[in-house]
Write a structure and sequence with these properties.
Elements (H helix, E strand, L loop, with lengths): L1 E2 L9 H4 L8 E4 L2 E4 L5 H20 L5 E4 L3 E5 L4 E3 L3 E4 L9 E3 L4 E5 L5 H15 L3 E6 L4 E6 L4 E7 L3 E3 L7 E3 H8 L1
Parallel strand pairs: 5-8, 9-10
Antiparallel strand pairs: 1-3, 2-3, 4-7, 5-6, 7-9, 10-11, 11-12, 13-14
Helix pairs in contact: 2-4
Length: 186
């Protein structure tokens, strides 16, 4: 993720909405940052996780909704902060306006791209925690590690290898077997 130096500060949602539709960008405190397109490995992990979590919610007749990028999350109006997490669960339907999630999702997963690991480990961790996200996972395909941050339970930076089965803490009985996902990566 790289700051677009020639771009002016984006301070309102109306200014953000004038960006080209194909622009892959996030905004932190009004500063716009461009995003790289996801790799095949990234897409495989994202699709599998979305499928597992969505199936769990449907089978348990849950009311939460799963979204994947590109889907905007407005964390703050002033200063304007808009992110596009790789995957999220939103349980409060009042946060959804048809265009975006306004406020913190309950659960977020970011899949690390090789060019910007500090963005997910540092910047987004800070913003997500302070915005009220309940749980945040960082999936690192290169290191084959999943880092779980369960802010509600004050459990931070708990690391699991890709051969682990990991509990989604916001649910009582949702477990994700990462070895099944790792097999698809070859």
């Amino acid at each position: 993720m790289h700051a677009l130096q020639s771009e002016p500060m984006i301070t309102t949602i109306e200014e953000y909405e004038t960006l080209p539709e194909d622009a892959r960008a996030e905004i932190f405190d009004g500063q716009i940052y461009s995003m790289a397109s996801p790799s095949q490995e990234h897409q495989t992990i994202s699709t599998e996780l979305t499928t597992i979590i969505n199936s769990y919610i449907k089978n348990s007749k849950g009311s939460c909704k799963v979204f994947h990028e590109p889907f905007d999350v407005k964390l703050s109006d002033k200063p304007l902060t808009i992110v596009q997490p790789d995957l999220m669960i939103v349980c409060d339907k009042n946060k959804l306006d048809g265009k975006r999630c306004n406020g913190a999702p309950d659960f977020i997963i970011e899949i690390i791209s090789p060019g910007n690991p500090s963005d997910d480990y540092i910047r987004k961790l800070y913003y997500y925690k302070n915005a009220g996200v309940r749980e945040y996972w960082i999936v690192d395909p290169r290191r084959k590690i999943v880092t779980v941050n369960y802010f509600e339970g004050n459990k931070l930076n708990i690391q699991y290898s890709f051969d682990s089965t990991i509990k989604v803490n916001i649910y009582n009985d949702l477990l994700i077997n990462f070895s099944e996902i790792a097999e698809l990566l070859g």
